[in-house]
């Protein structure tokens, strides 16, 4: 396999606070990698840096072999190659579900409206939201809104899907339906980098896991191995606290 996304020595500070301190990672095609760690460990900042939503202070990011950390790069063009789903659904409240799901495809990727709507309806049918296509987001549950946000992100066949704690804003009974959709995308071969606090999900779905703490990668390895027998004391402490 070849790396779709490579980050080397990424540093990022906000004022005097160093949030990322030399983080490196590789994401292969059709691979699912989970970022775990305590709040403030740098997971969300790392995802935002990879998608160029935050400028990095040092390091290099390659996407499909292209150096997207070059300051001369077309940042909007790079972002169009990613699909991103945030903690909060970020659906436009004045647009229908269908218009939300097709917006980037039509405006950024210049997909003809009919083609975009046909593709969107296939996705909405697949995720059980076809009957909500003409509704506005406030008529949907949190789980339905997050599934619509995922459909929007994958509509354009992104090279990498970035998922940032996508269940953290959901009521517990709605978490499962969103994770089931991600599990399905993973089984279809999507390339996914996800920050998550759902440890069982990370263990069962991710190929590899990176444990972040204090802006560094403390430990990484195959998901089941890392959860079954973490090598680093800090990793063991973190996982033990979660299971206590």
Automatic annotation (TrEMBL):
Alphabetic keyword roster: Amino-acid transport, ATP-binding, Cell membrane, Membrane, Nucleotide-binding, Transport
Similarity-based family: Belongs to the ABC transporter superfamily.
Cellular compartments annotated: Cell membrane
Any matching Pfam family: ABC_tran
Domain ABC transporter: 5-239
Membrane topology type: Peripheral membrane protein
Species, as recorded: Homoserinibacter gongjuensis
Descriptive protein name: ABC transporter
InterPro entries found in the cross-reference section: AAA+_ATPase, ABC_ATPase_HisP-typ, ABC_transporter-like_ATP-bd, ABC_transporter-like_CS, MetN_ABC_transporter-like, P-loop_NTPase
